[in-house]
Amino acid sequence: MTMTTEPILKVENLTIDVPMAQGTLHAVRGIDFELRRGETLCIVGESGSGKSLTSLALMGLLPKKMRCKAARLDFSGVDLQRQTPKAMRALRGDRMAMIFQEPMTSLNPAYTIGDQLMEALLLHRPVSKAEARERAVELLGKVGITAAESRLGQYPHQLSGGLRQRVMIAMALMCEPELIIADEPTTALDVTIQAQILRLLADLQREMNMAMILVTHDLGVVARIADKVVVMYAGEVVENGSAREIFENPRHPYTQGLLRCIPVPGKTKPGEHLGSIPGIVPSLIGKVEGCAFRSRCELAEDACSSSVPVRRPGADHAYRCIHDVPGGAPA
Fold first, then answer.
1. What is the DSSP string of 229-246?
2. Is the pTM of this model over 0.85?
3. Cβ contacts of 145 within 8 Å, gap of 6 or more
4. Which residues have CB under 8 Å from 109's CB, separation 6+?
5. Span 57-100, pLDDT tens digits
6. Is residue 197 part of a domain?
């Protein structure tokens, strides 16, 4: 896998606020990360931690009522915050693409698979319908769909969940984007199909040397595919680093808690109880101060309600905690 030294994506202090009747919901708070071509960045965390909103912000797909701002939102030299809706439409599907969580609701039931695949290429490239059709057949074959040409005339409801997800992947790759964002692309699929889709994404990424952001809550997925990991909790990054550092030397209590929740091959005995994290995610409406995880953390103390420092146990590893938490994978 070839990686350039210059990041293709730079995100600094990204915040997303949602006006509500009860006050302002601070859905995403001060997110920072970088991504290089050829790298896979996994964003992990519980439901409601801000993972999907972060990816939608990068694509310029947030609802209008949400307020999004950042110190920097740079994609390959393009300031995403300064782009007009027309300019963002030119970027989406061409240089950056997204695979959504549920393909049945992302594909238009009124149009054939072929029409939906060809649309992006016809919109962004000076090609004929015959050339677009040829590209669609080629990519359907590449993502493992047999009898690809005959599939072009079918509608989404005529395909299984696994096939629809493969169509979504092919659609995202039609223009060979530099960045692909996959928002929990295997959630609605059974375990066998999940493994096939993940293997397919990894293979295609290596072949096309794309940067990829994978949004997921499944740490088993992360272990197989990630180069970098961003752990989010209650709208902010609590730990980030290389996949090796996060799995072998987790430092934030939340990251350690997540890892205790998954079985470890060769260590976890059949029938043995897995770990759990007590409590629920706090409300992010109104003023949010201190560590949001403190109500669920066994290390919490009064100082956790004030400013929380960022600690750096390594050059590419950081976590947000008042404690110098011992590292090491949970037993």
1. EEEEETTEEEEEEEHHHH
2. yes
3. 151, 163, 166, 167, 170
4. 155, 156, 157
5. 999 999 999 999 999 999 999 999 999 999 999 999 899 999 98
6. no
CA proximity to 241, closest of 233, 249, 52: 249
Residue 52 structural domain: 9-84+179-189+209-320
Rounded distance between C-alpha atoms, residue 228 and residue 213, angstroms: 10
In a domain, 202, yes or no: no
Q: Can you give the CATH number for the domain in which 298 is found? A: 3.40.50.300
Angstrom distance (rounded) from CA 171 to CA 98: 9
Note the pLDDT tens digit of each residue in 273-322.
Answer: 877 888 888 889 988 889 999 999 989 999 999 889 999 998 889 999 99
- SS3 call for 300: coil
Count: domains in the chain: 1
Task: With respect to residue 104, please indicate whether it lies within any of the assigned structural domains.
Answer: no
Give the 3-state secondary structure of residue 203. helix
- Establish if 74 belongs to a structural domain: yes
